[in-house]
């Protein structure tokens, strides 16, 4: 069998009937190799499911939100399929089991597990619709439940992959199908040893594509995006951007670490380990080349700007008038590790430690609870973290305008600031 190719389509590329038709055209033209298509939930439907969970947790009525979620998918199907098509009964089956699940008790204790059980419906439903549409368009393809392949631990909402088990499952389940059919499967979801649904973290479908590619030793992964490739800044935020023709694995990984949302941060490593090229290209202009991420010996000097929203700046001040020392840092980091909170930026002074973290439900409260006895803790929410790699003075000055800057850090290569926009 020739090398497997993995394609990944995110929510924006399958947000409506026209997008799904476009996806099918893209696939149809590129079926030379055995192919796996990884698809996310359609449009903003993961957010919609999160909103439902949020309402339910606060004991609000969710019926109209459920209705909107169902109607969104049904409207798309009415544009793609004849009214008697079997996709409608399959969808109704999914809607029914989702509604049943949402009648169960949800509370702070079971939230993460319940979240994964609920949120996976976005991906399950989108792949059911798209598999049906591809078949209707004459592409022989098989629907695969990703949970049968992606084995994880039980850290709900941010599960860790069991690589050995996953490799074994991918080889036994996927390889035989790939000999004569394209496979379509869900991004972002997996299964723990007890058979419970897990997820890999928001926007984790890129990572799924990379996991499958690694386990099957694929020839190439393509992520289809609404941008022409990897750019040096988000075109939704900046007017002048440059597209990279190619980028080194390390460089791309660093940009994702700072929050570049073009690729999920965990995507690069498995591919780099096996030297599998990652191509980021536009589903709007599928014949354009995009960006290829692989081994590039020379380092890039173009300034890259990454803006990450929903940031919280937390500062810990020691209560007993001692200076900040290693044991304070150790103590804080131990709690951060326990809560699975990643520090996006760290700054220490004589009497305080400041960290910047992503906003995540319940986490800040828990962090404060655990450390309140030893530190006076203050925090600011709704902030942005801006990172400029390969900065020069002019770019930094320009970027600092109209912002209330709360913290700044500068090294030879990298400039970072935490700010609140001045409206
Ligand atoms: N649907 C999930 C999310 O929106 C996974 C993904 O899109 O990659 O986070
Ligand atoms: Mg998504």
From TrEMBL:
Give start and end of each Aspartate/glutamate/uridylate kinase domain: 3-282
Q: What class of enzyme is it?
A: transferase
- Per the UniProt entry, the Enzyme Commission number(s) are 2.7.2.4
**Annotated metabolic or biological route of this protein:** Amino-acid biosynthesis; L-lysine biosynthesis via DAP pathway; (S)-tetrahydrodipicolinate from L-aspartate: step 1/4; Amino-acid biosynthesis; L-methionine biosynthesis via de novo pathway; L-homoserine from L-aspartate: step 1/3; Amino-acid biosynthesis; L-threonine biosynthesis; L-threonine from L-aspartate: step 1/5
Q: Which InterPro entries match?
A: AceGlu_kinase-like_sf (IPR036393), ACT-like_dom_sf (IPR045865), Asp/Glu/Uridylate_kinase (IPR001048), Asp_kinase (IPR001341), AsparK_Bifunc_asparK/hSer_DH (IPR042199)
Q: Which GO terms describe its molecular function?
A: aspartate kinase activity
Q: Recite the UniProt keywords alphabetically.
A: Amino-acid biosynthesis, ATP-binding, Kinase, Nucleotide-binding, Transferase
Q: Which reaction does it catalyse?
A: L-aspartate + ATP = 4-phospho-L-aspartate + ADP
Q: Which residues are in coiled coils?
A: none
What family is this protein classified in? Belongs to the aspartokinase family.
In terms of NCBIfam families, this protein maps to: asp_kinases
What is the protein name for this chain?
Aspartokinase
Organismal lineage: Bacteria, Pseudomonadati, Bacteroidota, Cytophagia, Cytophagales
């Amino acid at each position: 069998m020739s090398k497997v190719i993995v394609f990944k389509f995110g929510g924006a590329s399958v947000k409506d009937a026209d997008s799904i038709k476009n996806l099918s055209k893209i696939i149809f033209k590129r079926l030379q190799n055995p192919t796996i298509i990884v698809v996310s939930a359609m449009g903003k439907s993961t957010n919609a499911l999160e909103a439902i969970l949020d309402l339910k947790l606060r004991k609000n009525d969710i019926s109209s939100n459920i209705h909107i979620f169902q109607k969104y998918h049904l409207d798309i199907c009415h544009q793609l399929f004849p009214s008697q098509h079997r996709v409608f009964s399959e969808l109704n089956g999914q809607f029914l089991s989702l509604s049943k699940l949402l009648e169960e008790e949800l509370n702070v204790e079971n939230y993460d597990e319940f979240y994964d059980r609920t949120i996976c419906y976005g991906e399950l439903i989108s792949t059911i619709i798209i598999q049906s549409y591809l078949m209707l368009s004459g592409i022989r393809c098989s629907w695969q439940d990703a949970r049968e392949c992606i084995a994880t631990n039980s850290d709900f909402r941010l599960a860790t992959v069991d690589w050995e088990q996953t490799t074994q499952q991918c080889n036994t389940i996927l390889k035989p199908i790939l000999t004569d059919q394209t496979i379509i499967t869900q991004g972002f979801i997996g299964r723990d040893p007890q058979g419970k649904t897990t997820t890999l973290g928001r926007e984790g479908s890129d990572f799924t594509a990379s996991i499958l590619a690694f386990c099957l030793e694929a020839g190439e992964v393509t992520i289809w995006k609404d941008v022409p490739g990897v750019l040096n800044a988000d075109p939704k935020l900046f007017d002048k951007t440059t597209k990279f023709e190619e980028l080194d694995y390390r460089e791309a990984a660093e940009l994702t670490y700072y929050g570049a949302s073009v690729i999920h941060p965990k995507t690069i490593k498995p591919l780099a380990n096996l030297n599998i090229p990652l191509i980021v290209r536009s589903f709007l202009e599928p014949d354009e080349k995009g960006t290829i991420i692989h081994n590039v010996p020379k380092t890039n000097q173009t300034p890259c700007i990454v803006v990450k929203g929903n940031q919280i700046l937390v500062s810990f001040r020691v209560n007993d008038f001692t200076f900040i020392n290693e044991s304070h840092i150790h103590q804080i980091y131990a709690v951060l590790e326990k809560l699975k909170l990643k520090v996006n930026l760290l700054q220490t002074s004589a009497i305080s430690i400041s960290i910047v973290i992503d906003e995540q439900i319940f986490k800040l409260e828990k962090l404060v609870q655990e450390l309140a006895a030893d530190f006076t803790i203050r925090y600011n929410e709704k902030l942005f973290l801006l990172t400029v790699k390969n900065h020069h003075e002019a770019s930094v000055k320009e970027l600092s305008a109209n912002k209330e800057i709360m913290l700044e850090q500068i090294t030879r290569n990298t400039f970072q600031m935490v700010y609140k926009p001045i409206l």
